[in-house]
Amino acid sequence: xxxxxxxxxxxxxxxxxxxxxxxxxxxxxxxxxxxxxxxxxxxxxxxxxxxxxxxxxxxxxxxxxxxxxxxxxxxxxxxxxxxxxxxxxxxxxxxxxxxxxxxxxxxxxxxxxxxxxxxxxxxxxxxxxxxxxxxxxxxxxxxxxxxxxxxxxxxxxxxxxxxxxxxxxxxxxxxxxxxxxxxxxxxxxxxxxxxxxxxxxxxxxxxxxxxxxxxxxxxxxxxxxxxxxxxxxxxxxxxxxxxxxxxxxxxxxxxxxxxxxxxxxxxxxxxxxxxxxxxxxxxxxxxxxxxxxxxxxxxxxxxxxxxxxxxxxx
Length: 314
Prior knowledge:
This protein is an alpha+beta fold. It is built from 8 helices and 12 strands. It has helices at residues 2-7, 28-52, 55-67, 164-172, 199-209, 212-220, 288-293, 297-313; strands at 71-83, 91-102, 107-118, 121-132, 135-140, 145-150, 179-182, 186-193, 229-241, 247-260, 263-276, 295-296.
């Protein structure tokens, strides 16, 4: 049970139309009256258009805006708690990070802090990551050195959790379950409920948080993650600017229980991603010293395998 308690802690871990000139010269009062009427008509049309927008309309326009996004700065706050009956204390992980991202080609620079708390024991770790050309450079605070690995090996596919396009496309498949609110500045698209009400959505959302290789490993050991999972509640909101239709913020949380080896693990995760500085990041360069110092993890693994083979032949 303790094995799954540790492994699962890694599972849940961003117009007005122009008026033509009139060739005639009406009286000043008439001109002012016509202008006032035109302004009123335009304002009325804008208000009517805003009132007529449905959640589908807002989602479609925001998706168009997100697809045009070239770069962004973002902040992410994430909290995760895991409790198991046979453990004396819960495991809590808090992650706070800031990132700069260029969409094409996908390039990223991220810094932040990860705090792991398990009862009386607490550990804080700084993180610094570069992503470029499918390679990830991560600073190892324990060894005080840089390591390099393939983006797939580093599970950087979890960037989809912060990608506005990925998140909006996911919501697009569940518009029947979606509600919309409007404030002075934003549209708020919301999906909330429990696992029975939103079974397909919660499975889709859970998949976003879970590592595919770990899920396959659990299946090989006879654990069907979705059959073993009971979603207590899910909360998912996207805040969209009501003028530009850019995504401003993403809030999501899940509370679930997983039956493993006859016992239940209770997990909660909540995250807030705020998007700032849209299309303001011109370039992200990996420092030359980082590239030179980084130890290639794949090369180290290959060397280790060769050494083991040589020892086996002796």
